[in-house]
């Protein structure tokens, strides 16, 4: 008789291997079927410590990456050398996969064991569109890997160097425009007396509101006094008759 645990383990390993193969091949139907029958397989590892997400990211299968992320895949999981899904995708220039991973909270600054960021990999692979996207999303051109290299040190072509120069200049111009607008409308600091007044009254706007409220209150009071004076004086005799009539009705109700 065989060992039931050993048979179960082999079955699980077979399912895991099948899921990795499906994720790498871009077989969404197979990925969905396996994850539905075994939800824990989504974070299973192969002999290189890679998850199905790593293989889907490496292969550029954005739809599968999105499905795995939505089904509890560990988006920050690292394979050997601390390489994450975003690093695999950046090595191959898969911009849509990178977009999905960032939307699920993966850091654009994440590094592997060698200190390589997604931007390092994108520039190293000469993936122009991905480089452009990462820089616009705030990737740091000055970050150094463990070898002391910035992404700029990994440029291999003049086309890439020209692109980065243009992007840097564009960002610099944008920053200068923002600063010039701030200079046009500088915030005037409060002096000691202004600060004291604001503290005493809450704010300048509050003071104006209080003044308006007092004026309205006084006007309303005057209007009420005029209205009161214009009311007719009630006839004492009519009042007494009405009271007598009400008392008579109460007496009748008590007798009933």
Automatic annotation (TrEMBL):
Residues 10-21, 169-202, 214-224 have a biased composition (Basic and acidic residues). Keywords: ANK repeat, Repeat. Residues 1-21, 169-238 are annotated as: Disordered. Pfam families: Ank_2. SMART domains: ANK. ANK repeats lie at residues 48-80, 81-113, 114-146. InterPro entries: Ankyrin_rpt, Ankyrin_rpt-contain_sf. PROSITE patterns: ANK_REP_REGION, ANK_REPEAT. Coiled coil: none annotated. This is Uncharacterized protein. It comes from Dendrobium thyrsiflorum (Pinecone-like raceme dendrobium).
């Amino acid at each position: 008789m065989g060992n039931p645990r050993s048979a179960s383990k082999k079955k699980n390993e077979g399912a895991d291997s099948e899921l990795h193969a499906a994720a790498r091949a871009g077989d969404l139907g197979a990925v969905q079927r396996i994850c539905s029958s075994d939800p824990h397989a989504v974070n299973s590892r192969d002999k290189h410590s890679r998850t199905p997400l790593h293989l889907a990211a490496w292969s550029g299968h954005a739809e599968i990456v999105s499905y795995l992320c939505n089904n509890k895949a560990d988006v920050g999981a690292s394979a050997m050398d601390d390489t994450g899904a975003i690093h695999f995708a950046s090595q191959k220039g898969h911009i849509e996969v990178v977009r999905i991973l960032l939307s699920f909270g993966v850091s654009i600054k994440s590094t592997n064991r060698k200190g390589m960021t997604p931007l390092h990999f994108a520039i190293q692979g000469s993936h122009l569109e991905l480089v452009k996207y990462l820089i616009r999303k705030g990737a740091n051109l000055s970050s150094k890997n463990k070898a002391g290299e910035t992404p700029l040190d990994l440029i291999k072509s003049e086309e890439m160097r020209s692109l980065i120069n243009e992007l840097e200049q564009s960002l610099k111009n944008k920053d200068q425009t923002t600063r010039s607008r701030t200079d046009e409308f500088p915030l005037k600091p409060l002096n000691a007396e202004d600060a004291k007044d604001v503290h005493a009254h809450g704010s300048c706007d509050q003071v104006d509101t209080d003044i308006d409220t007092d004026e309205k209150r006084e006007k309303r009071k005057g209007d009420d006094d005029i209205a009161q004076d214009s009311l007719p004086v009630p006839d004492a005799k009519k009042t007494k008759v009405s009271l007598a009539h009400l008392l008579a009705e109460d007496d009748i109700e008590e007798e009933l």
